[in-house]
Amino acid sequence: MTRGFLLAPEEFPIRGDFRIARGGKAVARVVVAELREGACRGRGECVPYGRYGETVEGVLAQLEMLRTAVEAGLERSALQDALPPGAARNALDCALWDLEAKRSGQPAWALAGLPQPVPRTTLFTISLAAPEAMAKAARQASDRSLLKVKLGAAGDPERLQAVRQAAPQAGLVVDANEGWSPAQLVDYGPLLVEAGVLLVEQPLPAGQDEALRGLGYPVPLGADESFHGLADIERLAGLYQLVNLKLDKTGGLTEALRVREQALAAGFGIMVGCMVGSSLSMAPATLLTDGAAFVDLDGPLLLTADRSPGLRYDGAVLHPSTGEVWG
What we know:
- By secondary structure, this protein is of the alpha/beta class.
- It folds into two domains: 3-111, 2-Layer Sandwich (Enolase-like, domain 1), CATH 3.30.390.10; 120-319, TIM Barrel (Alpha-Beta Barrel).
- Helix content is 33%, strand content 24%.
- The chain contains twelve helices and 14 strands.
- The strands form three sheets. An eight-stranded parallel β-sheet has the order 5-6-7-8-9-10-11-12. A three-stranded antiparallel β-sheet has the order 1-2-3. Strands 4-14-13 form a three-stranded antiparallel β-sheet, with no helix packed on it.
- The mean pLDDT is 96.
């Protein structure tokens, strides 16, 4: 059967000002890969990330180079060698999972041999801003039981205190996005404990991880920019207690399932994370949430409008895809 292969860049305006330690953005730019076989259609979405040298144009070019192979029936096993880990492989890998689910009439979680995903509470991001603005955002998110607080700039203690006062009942995860020095990390320890912070994500620049060895930090530490896949598991042992698993870093669900299994076996906790994208980006990641310490799949909640149909969010609770969106 002839297979059609369509690629499309899309844009989703972001609500307000999404800002982290490295800068801000007002639009989520994604790439959608779509496969068609007869009446069956499979889709996958990726979010090219400049921090890792990716652009929308570059991802489109990577995928175009595979057009002949994809149209001839390239499957997931061969894709793992045809493209390196990253956003481009993620879009196509997830499209192939979706297509297989549609062809077989089975949900993707069953094809993967996984338990059926269940609703999970997701973190909700409070973007980096002045303390007063972050406090306002935290108050407006009063129905969210878990907040991810973006830090990583001068004035972080005041920001954290403002958020904690505005949301006294919320569980807090702090994400410094590589914005702290080792000295700042040590200095902030008592404040983080006082604020009841559950996790500090990527406090130091990737490449400075060894500064954490033997630190005995009073709050659990999570690796994001320092963690991409299997090659990082052994290196990060003893430095972090948790790793942030993102499909755009592993290059799709196929590899993410392997990474998740080995990271858990090595004793790491798992956060299932995302870049800022639509429900089509989040839906495959819901298959990874069983046993995760944290679920951070709030991308659609940060957009002015999600794609339709989209995933269902009831306040802080994310419901997995029923197959309308993906899988």
